[in-house]
Design a protein that fits this description.
- A four-stranded mixed sheet has the order 22-23-1-24, with helices on one face. A four-stranded mixed sheet has the order 2-15-17-16. The protein has a four-stranded mixed sheet with strand order 4-5-3-14, covered by helices on one side.
- Helices cover about 30% and strands about 30% of the residues.
- The longest helix is centred in the first third of the chain and has 13 residues.
- It starts with a strand and ends with a strand.
- The model has no long low-confidence stretch (mean pLDDT about 95).
- It is built from 13 helices and 24 strands.
- It folds into two domains: about 220 residues, Enolpyruvate transferase domain (UDP-n-acetylglucosamine1-carboxyvinyl-transferase, Chain); about 210 residues, Enolpyruvate transferase domain (UDP-n-acetylglucosamine1-carboxyvinyl-transferase, Chain), CATH 3.65.10.10.
- By secondary structure, the chain is α/β, with parallel strands linked by helices.
- Helix 1 runs parallel beside helix 2, helix 3 runs parallel beside helix 6 and helix 10 packs parallel to helix 12.
- Bound molecules: shikimate-3-phosphate.
- The site of shikimate-3-phosphate (S3P) has 11 residues, from helix 6.
């Protein structure tokens, strides 16, 4: 469904970002393995987290989902199984969700039953060897297409033992898969990472009683049983980022985004926008269910180009498409390096971002691990294809909110992978949506 967005004269108001996708997946999966029941509030409304709920139900977990009629997000009542998942009757479908597939791979490894997990075309083209290899070293029997590198994946049991493992990429999904397998392995599992990536797994498993130790870039876990915990999911900073960039680059804007999770392993977007000169303030800082949360106020700003590279990249990896809009609307060059992971996201986000920006009149250059964007304070309109990538679709939408000419996103509905209410919010804030 094509969606056309034009710039409103002013962009002002309050927004509540939807529940964090990463925290929502973890709250559902970990509590389904735990002893006891848990209430998860402000659960992400996106399709990705719904895929996780469907998978867990197929594994015998009882989950009741209560829709919310306010901004608060759905509630999940998860009945913990005490680590007793059952053999699914059918193929498990993770849809578009890499987090579902990789975290569930760690949780399914070495279980005494057969399970097959697939995804959509995008997910079945994304690298799974990075989880299959270390899980196989731990003793899991896992097969996949193309010599065990791609989904669909087949889990055939095995007996797990802990390993020492150096992650080849700073991936929280991979780290989490190994920690989940480590909970059921014989002996400790020790992981070292090339850079810090989001640490929601370490925090939540720790809160559930797991002996997770973190020392710098080293994380370890030993086998243990989890106790259920209630989780109030913070607002998703990756969703809030669209509004931050919109407000910073629109000429007459002030947006307050309420209840945003500001876990330091996720706040790279704040660091980058501040380095670009964004007028951005955090207010009402508080701790909600062990995670730091704040309201983020962003006003019209004069942005300049910046450099984004190691070790900042994993802390803003999902925000790079929308930061590209900030870079185009800034004065000067923004250079993004050390971000080769973008090539294996829902689509090749380096290629897709460059193709889109060039067709929107923005000069840019690609490299294997990133891109340079020559900001000239403008971005042109037109019809653009987000290549079935939710974050690309919403980033293109932001370009429509702040650029001089209308922008059409050819399949806007893909935003519902993480943010089903996105276009309604655009409309509510005065963006003209056709
Ligand atoms: C996620 C980790 C990141 C991120 C993804 C969610 C998670 O992926 O891009 O959207 O919840 O752990 P990688 O860990 O593979 O970089």
């Amino acid at each position: 469904m094509p969606i056309t967005i034009s710039r409103p004269r002013a962009l002002r108001g309050d927004i509540t970002a939807p529940g964090d996708k990463s925290v929502s997946h973890r709250a559902a999966i970990f509590n389904s393995l735990a002893k006891g029941d848990a209430l998860v509030t402000n659960f992400s409304p996106g399709n990705d987290c719904t895929s996780t709920v469907h998978l867990l139900r197929a594994l015998g977990v009882r989950i009741e989902r209560t829709p919310s009629n306010s901004d608060a997000g759905d509630s999940l009542h998860v009945r913990g199984t005490g680590d007793a998942w059952i053999e699914p009757d059918n193929v498990l479908d993770a849809g578009n969700s890499g987090t579902t597939m990789r975290l569930m791979a760690g949780a399914l490894a070495g279980r005494p039953f057969l399970a097959v997990m697939t995804g959509d075309d995008s997910l079945n083209g994304r690298p799974m060897g990075r989880v299959i290899d270390p899980l196989s070293q731990m003793g899991a029997e896992i097969r996949g297409r193309r010599r065990d590198t791609l989904a669909p994946l087949i889990f055939q049991g095995g007996k797990l033992r802990g390993i020492d493992y150096e992650l080849p990429v700073a991936s929280a999904q991979l780290k989490s898969a190994l920690l989940l397998a480590g909970l059921r392995a014989e002996g400790p599992t020790r992981i070292s990472q090339p850079a810090l990536s989001r640490d929601h797994t370490e925090r939540m498993l720790g809160a559930m009683g797991a002996p997770v130790k973190v020392e710098g870039l080293h994380v370890s876990v030993s086998p243990c049983r989890l106790n259920a915990v209630d989780v109030q999911v913070p607002g998703d900073i990756s969703s809030a980022a669209f509004w931050m960039v919109a407000a910073a680059t629109h000429q007459n804007a002030e947006l307050c985004i309420r209840g945003v999770g500001i876990n330091p392993s996720r706040t790279g977007v704040l660091t980058a926008l501040r380095a670009m000169g964004a007028n951005l303030q955090l207010t009402e800082q508080r701790i909600v269910a062990g995670e730091p949360v704040a309201d983020v106020v962003v006003r019209s700003s004069r942005l300049r180009g910046t450099e984004i590279g190691h070790p900042l990249v994993p802390l803003l990896i999902d925000e790079i498409p929308v930061l590209a809009v900030a870079a185009a609307m800034a004065e000067g060059v923004t250079t993004i390096r050390d971000a080769a992971e973008l090539r294996v996201k829902e689509t090749d986000r380096i290629e897709a971002t460059i193709d889109w920006l060039r067709s929107a009149g923005v000069e840019c250059e690609g490299r294997p691990d990133g891109m340079s964007i020559m900001g000239a304070g403008r971005i042109m309109g037109g019809t653009f294809d987000p290549r079935n990538d939710h974050r690309l679709a919403m980033s293109i939408g932001v370009a429509g909110l702040v650029g001089e000419q209308p922008v059409t996103v050819s399949n806007g509905e893909v935003a519902s992978v993480s943010y089903p209410g996105f276009w309604n919010e655009v409309r509510r804030l005065g963006g003209i949506v056709g």
